[in-house]
């Protein structure tokens, strides 16, 4: 399988090259050059397999220049019992006869990002070897909270790599921040940015685009790559869990052969839902992909109108990982739906850059309406949903998952569609415990307590164990205190790599 850039100004590359580069040098995103289709028979034959074996079947379709043994070795290292505290890796919980929750947060950092970032370092180091890379790979990450910690955990102490994570100084939860600034490892760095996630992501993308700086890095034996979902190696492992969820339902007799289901995906950078789109295109029986946004509802407006407009106030919400107005992965969807038209993509992305807006044409807008449905949930909706779900099902969900749940309720009210539905649960409730405790126990329960004290409160109330990765965070030394403006991000990278 070869990969091409959505902007059409860079040659086709192997999977290893695409993963090593992260972002295409013309500013585009790498996408597979041909479609991958799983027949119904093939799908059914995977129902009895473990998560690991299902993942191998998906990955080998896309990573043609890796042997099955190499993929299997990467999968085994990534999805082991030491790393994931659920035997099923990504278990599906049943809430009622037509509603299920796919828990994607049983990895070391308690967010769905582990599903990809536990395997990406193995894929990337092999990619470097396959492409004869001599330089150290420097992973630059922009995070709104979850990707950063998951990438640090995945890449810490990986030989031949360095990792630098930029996060919005005021834009992540206390737990998320502590997880990152206490990160140990001989190749890691964490930098706060005065600004929001979009500033951090735009800053990272402009470092990738800065030819002189990249040359300077090359002269010092460094090559940049990415661990955000702009990197195909981040996205492709995420396809596996949609297959796995469906196969679990099939294996348990919850769905019949060929029966379609809906997926609800809380999303900000459009990576998670794009992985679900690929799964659907590959033949997974999916009816609707329900895109759940928070009050930064740029994606909802886009899906409803075909107009992408980021010229609006950036809001800080209680689902901070989704506080994003520039959703990078939408570019891949538009590329596919426009019939792989790089001119159109350049036009729309150019307009987004210049004016903050673009409008897609009918050929793209129509299939979007057929495949996707979208709505958003405000913070008060989110809190009310956590409480209602806890009362109704005894199930505790985090704020991002609750956004998904609320949007699903609206979907049902509006469409009457009773298709079985799986909500992608993107983070452990312990990670956003302040809002979760407030929702379930009321305002007074959080008064005067920090998020680390609230872990205990939530553990008692939910009768769940505090995940290992979140315990004792306050006793770890803070190792990173650097704060920069978005204009200083390149200099921060230079200082970390070339001057220290
Ligand atoms: N929600 C993300 C933002 C970056 O998204 P990614 O999927 O492209 O890594 C975060 O938590 O950092």
Would you give an account of this structure?
With about 500 residues, this protein is α/β, with parallel strands linked by helices. The protein has a domain at about 90-110 and about 235-435: Rossmann fold (3-Layer(aba) Sandwich), CATH 3.40.50. Helices cover about 45% and strands about 15% of the residues. The protein contains 21 helices and 16 strands. Strands 4-5-15-10-11-14 form a 6-stranded mixed sheet, with helices on both faces. The radius of gyration is 21 Å and the shape is globular. The model has no long low-confidence stretch (mean pLDDT about 95). The ligand N[C@@H](CCOP(=O)(O)O)C(=O)O binds near residues 145 and 321.
Briefly summarize what is shown.
The protein is α/β, with parallel strands linked by helices and 500 residues long.
Question: If helices are DSSP runs of H or I spanning 4 or more residues, what is the number of helices?
Answer: 21
Q: How big is the Rg? A: 21 Å
* Separation of the first and last Cα atoms: 40 Å
Strand order of the largest sheet: 4-5-15-10-11-14
Beta fraction of the residues? 15-25%
Low-confidence stretches: none
Reading off the top of the CATH hierarchy, the class of the domain at 88-111 and 235-433 is best stated as Alpha Beta
Helix percent band = 40-55%
Main pleated sheet: 6 strands, mixed
Shape: globular
CATH architecture of the domain at 88-111 and 235-433: 3-Layer(aba) Sandwich
């Amino acid at each position: 399988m070869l990969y091409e850039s959505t902007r059409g100004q860079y040659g086709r590359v192997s999977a290893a090259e695409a993963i090593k580069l992260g972002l295409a040098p013309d500013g585009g995103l790498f996408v597979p050059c041909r479609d991958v289709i799983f027949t119904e028979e093939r799908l059914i034959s995977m129902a009895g397999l473990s998560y690991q074996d299902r993942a191998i079947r998906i990955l080998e379709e896309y990573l043609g220049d890796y042997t099955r043994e190499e993929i299997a070795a990467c999968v085994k290292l990534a999805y082991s019992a030491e790393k994931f505290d659920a035997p099923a890796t990504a278990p599906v919980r049943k809430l009622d006869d037509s509603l299920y929750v796919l828990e994607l947060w049983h990895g070391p950092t308690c967010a769905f990002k582990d599903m990809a970032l536990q395997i990406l370092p193995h894929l990337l180091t092999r990619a470097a070897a396959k492409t004869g890379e001599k330089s150290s790979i420097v992973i630059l990450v922009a995070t709104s909270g979850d990707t950063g910690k998951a990438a640090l955990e995945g890449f810490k102490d990986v030989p031949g790599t360095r990792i630098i994570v930029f996060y919005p100084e005021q834009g992540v939860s206390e737990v998320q921040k502590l997880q990152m600034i206490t990160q140990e490892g001989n190749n890691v760095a964490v930098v706060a940015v005065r600004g929001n996630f979009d500033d951090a992501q735009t800053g990272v993308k402009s470092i990738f685009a800065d030819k002189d700086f990249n040359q300077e890095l090359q002269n010092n034996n460094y090559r940049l790559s990415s661990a955000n979902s702009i990197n195909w190696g981040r996205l492709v492992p995420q396809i596996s869990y949609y297959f796995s969820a469906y196969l679990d339902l099939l294996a348990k007799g919850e769905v019949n052969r060929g029966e379609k289901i809906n997926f609800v995906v809380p999303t900000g950078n459009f990576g998670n839902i794009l992985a679900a789109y690929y799964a659907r295109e590959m033949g997974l029986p999916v009816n609707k992909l329900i895109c759940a946004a928070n009050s930064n509802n740029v994606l909802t407006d886009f899906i409803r109108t075909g107009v992408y407009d980021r010229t609006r106030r950036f809001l800080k919400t209680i689902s901070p990982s989704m506080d994003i107005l520039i959703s990078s992965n939408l570019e891949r969807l538009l590329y596919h739906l426009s019939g792989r038209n790089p001119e159109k993509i350049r036009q729309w992305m150019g307009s987004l850059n210049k004016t903050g807006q673009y409008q897609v044409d009918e050929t793209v807008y129509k299939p979007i309406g057929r495949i996707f449905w979208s709505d958003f949930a405000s913070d008060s909706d989110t809190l009310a949903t956590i409480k209602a779900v806890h009362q109704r099902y005894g199930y505790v969900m985090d704020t991002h998952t609750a956004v998904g749940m609320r949007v699903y309720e609206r979907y049902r009210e509006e469409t009457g569609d009773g298709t079985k539905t799986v909500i992608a649960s993107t983070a452990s409730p312990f990670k956003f415990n302040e809002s979760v405790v407030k929702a379930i126990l009321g305002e007074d329960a959080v008064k005067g307590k920090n998020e680390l004290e609230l872990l205990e409160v939530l553990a008692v109330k939910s009768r769940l164990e505090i995940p290992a990765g979140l315990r004792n965070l306050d006793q770890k030394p803070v190792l990173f205190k650097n704060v920069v403006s978005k204009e200083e991000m390149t200099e921060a990278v230079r200082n970390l790599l070339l001057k220290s």
